Amino acid sequence: MDFDALISGLDRHTLDGITRGSIYALVALGYTMVYGVMKLINFAHSEVFMVGTWTVLGVYTVLGATAGSSIGMVIGATLLALIAAMLASAGTALAVERIAYRPLRKKGAPPLIFLITGIGCSIVLVETFGQVLRAFFGPPFGRVTVNIPSVLETKVVFTIPGIDLAVTNTRLLIIIGAIVMMLALDTFVNKSRLGRGVRAVAQDPDTASLMGVNQDRVIMLVFVLGGAMAGVAALLFTIQYDITKFDIGFIIGIKAFTAAVLGGIGNLRGALVGGLLLGVVEVYASQIWDSSWTDVTAFVVLVLVLMFRPTGLLGESLGKARA
Amino acid sequence: MSTIMDSYRGLKLGNRWDSAPRLFKMFLLLLVVAFAFYLPYLNILPFAYVRTDLNPTGSDWASVLFLIVVYMIVAVGLNVVIGLAGLLDLGYVGFYALGAYSVALFGSPSSPVVEALQSRFGLSEDWAVPFAICIPIAITMSLIAGVILGAPTLRLRGDYLAIVTLGFGEIIRITARNLDNVTGGAAGITQVPVPPGPEVDGRSFFNTIDAERWYWLALVILLIIIWLTLRLEHSRVGRAWLAIREDEDAAAVMGVAGFKFKLWAFAIGASVGGLAGLLFGSKQQYVEPNAFMLNLSFLFVAMVVIGGSGNVVGVLVGAFLLTYLPERFRELQEWRPFAFGVALVLVMVLRPQGLVPSRRRAREFEDRRHEAEEAAADV
């Protein structure tokens, strides 16, 4: 128990927590949307994120972007990496749906089987980067941590006066980027025609299909959107932490899922609240106790929330049609 | 004679088995069990090709058999939770670890817990809790853990349970790794006790070299546990589990106390997992946190589901395949997880009811498929 370490750097730790939480929140969107529509935990979603981080590395390597690149190169490489990561992650998510979930849906298999095929896909994706690609191309693929060049160099943008907190450009980009993406998705689901289809299927799949909503298409859309958000999260993650690894998705996936449940799974705004909260709680906990206990925090928080508020802080609501 | 045979023809294997005379069934079962006990010495060509120690780098055949049987015990225990009660437990490795750690913590003279007991009560340096008492300790510890985990979470919907149990498995491992002064941290605990027995050839009866004795011990325990779970399955409790698995709300309306029976399933499954962990830790004579990664939990669930959840023969087949095949094809070691993932997806997509499903389950799957098709045709 070390409260002094927490109190003395409270502002710094809060900012750190919010940065982490933004990434959790973006990944959590994928879980929450799929859950909202299919009542299914997509176990392979963490690997969709992992594919995104590798795509970012690939784009940087092809373009030759490194730490000292010119400003034009930095912006170009980052934007290209963003688009590529979104496409790759969305594609992976779609492939998972096609291969592992759709055939089972047609057979009316019970939920347990979906979970198992999800785990299977997750293992296949992890091993693709840990073993298969290494066998053909060699490093950087393999079972080691890989560095990603920090193309966007960290600089202090401004200092918040009074509490003397230095805000860096990378943190600012992550927080603003995550919130903008989430707002965009929220607007899309609540305002657009396609979004209405998503909400309809979430609320009552049978009635929705009677009203002419193509359920298969809605489910594909949900996987694509969730995957794209994981792609954005992957880029933001590499900007902050500069690494990737074949099994990097696992722990982030667990955290993101916890965030989704915390806010109320199936609720897009809940994912944001849950993600930010979990990030902050985690950083605080790692200061008070030991950082080796950080990963336990998420689980303890999850159990506590489920015990007292089984539907999360904001409740389930993708199906509650508004507007 | 031919009329008798005719009535057998066209029936499925399971039906034929059911309509066979009781004496014949007993005889065949005895034969299978006897063969299982003989397996470590299997040396008749061409059957000997199933051995895993054919090439010099292969692993010891009797040790592999032991591991297969330990995982079979795990699968039978997990089958109570997943197959009968329909609760998805992704943290089963936590109970397995608790069993292994219980015997290590209380039975090993070098464990911090035993050392504390020694200094507290002024006992000699080599004193430790005897193996026979470690067994109830391990079972009780995992049973209590099952109740502690189950009591707050079993009221939740099934999907949440999966994640909470997953978290539980990780918490156990991380705790074991971080509590240096209780569990020995990442270094683990050595000198885990073995069952007592007469000395043979100057070695204690249960040692690291003669693995076939471990295998026979595990096999006896497996047979007892199979018998017990089969008794349970056909009791009032078992029928309550099936009712909950099929439709919890309907079961509740009919007066089945869902929570109580779910907790029972959870606790029984947990204690069987603890017992399997105890066997594993005792045979290794060494326990460390890295032996209990979450992948093992997924492997356990896969055994139950691939084999055919709800059916004892099915889960035994699942446990056998998923333990034996990787050992037999060790030269492809690096590709094992990849092959495992591909197999998991393929088997489940092509045969969601498992390889050897229970008949009741198979019929349910058939029903659901029809319903799905009709729903698709309606739209």
UniProtKB/TrEMBL annotation, chain A:
InterPro entries: ABC_transp_permease (IPR001851), BCAA_transport_permease (IPR052157). The keyword Coiled coil does not apply. It comes from the Bacteria. Keywords: Amino-acid transport, Cell inner membrane, Cell membrane, Membrane, Transmembrane, Transmembrane helix, Transport. The keyword Ligase does not apply. Its main location: membrane. CDD domains: TM_PBP1_LivH_like. It is found in: Cell membrane. It is a multi-pass membrane protein. The chain crosses the membrane at residues 23-41, 48-67, 73-96, 108-126, 172-189, 218-240, 296-315. Belongs to the binding-protein-dependent transport system permease family. LivHM subfamily. This is Branched-chain amino acid ABC transporter permease.
UniProtKB/TrEMBL annotation, chain B:
It is found in: Cell membrane. The keyword Transport does not apply. The chain crosses the membrane at residues 26-49, 61-82, 89-107, 127-151, 214-232, 263-280, 292-325, 337-356. Keywords: Cell membrane, Membrane, Transmembrane, Transmembrane helix. Signal peptide: none annotated. It is a multi-pass membrane protein. It comes from the Bacteria. InterPro entries: ABC_transp_permease, LivM-like. Coiled coil: none annotated. This is Branched-chain amino acid ABC transporter permease. It comes from Nocardioides renjunii.
